[in-house]
Amino acid sequence: MTREGRRLRAIAGLTGGTYLVLAATVLLPLSAMLYFSFLNVAPINGRTATFTLKHYVDFFTKPVYRINAWRSFELGLYVTGFCFAIGYPAALLLARHIRNRWREAILLLIVLPFWSNGLVRTFSWTMVLNPGGLPDRFLHWLWPAVPTIDLIYTYPAIVIGLVHAYLPYMILTSYVSLQAIDDTLGEAALSLGASKLAVFLRITLPLSLPGIVAGVVLIFVPVIGSFMEPRILGGQQAIMLGTLIETQFTASFNWPLGAALGFVMLAIVLVVMAACAPFLKRQMSF
């Protein structure tokens, strides 16, 4: 056997098991859900199922599904946009202007929410956003005549809860990209007469784009399928595609419809990614 053949065999031996486990744990559940999505009923408890396209047809013919799919898509855009607007400047400040132990301490604070349960974090927002919560008390302390702040069970409450949950992803991925940029590039541009804004727009932002893209994917994809935060913080505003899917599995026990809606959501994500891919490829090739 040649040297190249031995190298390939060693790589296959070291990584083959891992990829097999990943393929099994990802593809098997998806395959089962895809199969269920084409059935009229879930084949459990002795029920006989037949193949049908009814659930996919329902998505395109019943406005309730399209409206809530758009609401989920819109929520993903809002949350991703707010996470970028808050997280990227924070990552830039952390990578360029904060040094030594202060940086380590702030990084620790950023990952601190991951140490607590997501359900607990979400329920804690119900106490903050209720009338009489901390922001409400603080504003009344500053200005007693200000109206009571009551954000709980509103659309902004859902956005606040999701931004809080996913903001660390944008900060960490952007921070890693910004840290990898060679400082001498910016110094060389400044010495040649470029302004700080030009250095940011022509060097820092394009080179940090991989981190931004990673953050956008890590935030947008789970947010459009989220149901816990909308259910707890949104009240009547909580009806979205994610909550509809959850209801089909846990309350209506219409697993085929839930599976079909899940694959429609997956298709929406893939279409968005495919539409953005040419632009991102062009920007990241610079």
Automatic annotation (TrEMBL):
Pfam families: BPD_transp_1
Transmembrane segments: 12-38, 75-94, 106-128, 152-178, 199-224, 257-280
Cited Gene3D superfamilies: MetI-like
Keyword Cell membrane: yes
Domain of life: Bacteria
Keywords attached to this entry: Cell membrane, Membrane, Transmembrane, Transmembrane helix, Transport
GO CC entries: plasma membrane
SUPFAM superfamilies for this protein: MetI-like
Xref: PROSITE patterns: ABC_TM1
Cell location: Cell membrane
Key word Cell membrane present: yes
One GO process term, biological-process aspect: transmembrane transport
Main subcellular location of this protein, as a coarse class: membrane
Every ABC transmembrane type-1 domain range: 69-276
Membrane-topology descriptor: Multi-pass membrane protein
Family to which the UniProt record says this protein belongs: Belongs to the binding-protein-dependent transport system permease family. CysTW subfamily.
The protein's name: Spermidine/putrescine transport system permease protein
Biological source species: Oharaeibacter diazotrophicus
